[in-house]
Design brief:
This protein is 49% helix and 14% strand. By secondary structure, it is α/β, with parallel strands linked by helices. The chain folds into two domains: 339 residues, TIM Barrel (Alpha-Beta Barrel); 38 residues. The strands form three sheets. The chain has an eight-stranded parallel β-barrel, surrounded by seven helices. Strands 6-7 form a two-stranded antiparallel ribbon. Helix 7 links the parallel strand 9 and strand 10. Helix 5 packs parallel to helix 6 and helix 11 packs across helix 12. The longest helix is centred in the C-terminal third of the chain and has 28 residues.
Length: 397
């Protein structure tokens, strides 16, 4: 399969890669071992050179296991060296903004600046119900909390009262380790709420609403809304801080990739029909693999397929700075690790220019081969002749 060159739609001419780790685990699995494996995955990605891992917050439903991304991140910081770690996301309506800001600043210092704060309204209505929160209020509450959190992280003294939190002359006791503040991003799907919030404060955007053609149109519109909101509020947003979550599984062949995902894709699809607000694979679909590939909701194939797919996402969105692979556990552990390795080995370089100078060197050497090989042969023969002449002279004497 032929593929295009590195896309001109990359804001820095360079695409960063990471994962979005909910995490998803089937109901028949040992949850303790599942969490251990999630930690092992982040350690493995750190060694492979992945840039980021975003860790989710979920409290009900039984399938997405982490109730506190901060706890996981604190442990992961100690086990990794360079990968950046983000909350994906802290559901702001579930927490007082003062404690959110305080925990993140602490993690920022403990990680020496490797932490990122991702925020959102909360994805599972079951979580909100159990906390006595009306789902219709979640987006309003997110905006109210975010306004306060940003001010707190900027070191301001905040006095504010809403129908669900109060701040009385609240100021954090520590500044962020990162300056001017800890990096932040707002989750955004079909609704423009997250995009408008990100633009209002000049934050990054984390798009998690799918990658089919319709979803890409929403992403593109949301980024425009983000830019417009930034201008209206005197803020600045940059495409390099826009992250798009995509669904991928890569193997050496398409047939092998298809066989790999038989391990868990149907259970994952059923979970989204049963619990979250939005289905991903509609009810009645008999083969989740076929549907995901045909609708371009995912790429399940080879590294070349992944490259072509990401190029399509860049073109459809207008360009973004980071691709976050959804950590879906469609395949077993060994095939999952192989998927990430193949992406790091063969997909990263295409979008990061890793081999441009190598290729230039190779082509120059190839084009010049006859010239320099001939000169080298002449030099070798000259030395042979010189040695032979010297040996002959010694014999004559």
């Amino acid at each position: 399969m032929s593929v295009k060159g590195p896309s001109s739609l990359l804001p820095d001419g360079y695409l960063r890669f990471g994962i979005f780790l909910a995490p998803f685990h089937t109901m028949n699995e040992n949850p303790t071992l599942a969490m251990d494996r999630d930690m092992a995955l982040v350690e493995y990605l750190d060694k492979l050179g992945y840039h980021e891992a975003w860790i989710g917050e979920h409290h009900s439903g039984g399938f997405e296991l982490f109730g506190s991304p901060e706890l996981f991140i604190a442990a992961a910081v100690e086990r990794t060296n360079r990968i950046r770690l983000g909350t994906g996301v802290v559901s702001l309506p579930y927490h007082h903004p003062y404690t959110v800001a305080g925990r993140i600043v602490q993690l920022d210092h403990m990680s020496k600046g490797r932490i990122m704060l991702g925020v959102g309204p909360g994805a599972l209505t079951g979580d909100a119900y159990r906390m006595g929160i009306d789902p219709k209020d979640q987006r309003r509450m997110m905006n109210e909390s975010l306004d306060a959190v940003v001010r707190l992280l900027d070191g301001e003294v905040v006095t504010e009262s809403t129908d669900w939190f109060t701040l009385n002359e609240a100021q954090l006791q520590l500044r962020c380790y990162q300056r001017p503040r800890t990096e932040m991003a707002v989750a955004c799907s079909y609704s423009p709420v997250g995009a408008l919030a990100a633009g209002r404060h000049g934050l990054g955007m984390l798009s998690i609403g799918g990658t089919d053609d319709e979803a890409l149109l929403h992403h593109r519109d949301n980024w425009q809304a983000c830019e417009d909101a930034a201008k209206q509020n005197g803020a600045v947003v940059q495409r390099k801080n826009w992250r798009v979550v995509a669904m991928m599984h890569i193997a050496e062949t398409r047939a092998k990739a298809r066989e790999n995902v038989r391990f868990g894709i149907e259970q994952w699809a059923q979970y989204f029909r049963d619990v979250p607000t939005f289905e991903i694979v509609p009810a009645g679909v008999q083969d989740a693999y076929e549907w995901m590939v045909e609708t371009k909701s995912a790429v399940i194939g080879t590294p070349d397929d992944a490259i072509e797919y990401i190029e399509t996402l860049l073109e459809g969105s207008g360009g973004f700075g980071s691709l976050m692979q959804l950590a879906h556990n469609w395949a077993d552990w060994e095939a999952t690790k192989r998927n990430y390795e193949l992406i790091a080995r063969y997909v990263f370089p295409h979008f990061q220019g890793s081999n441009e100078l190598r290729k230039a060197s190779y082509h120059f050497s190839h084009a010049s081969r006859d010239k320099y090989v001939g000169r080298a042969s002449e030099a070798i023969q000259s030395e042979i002749d010189r040695h032979a002449a010297g040996s002959s002279a010694k014999k004559d004497s």
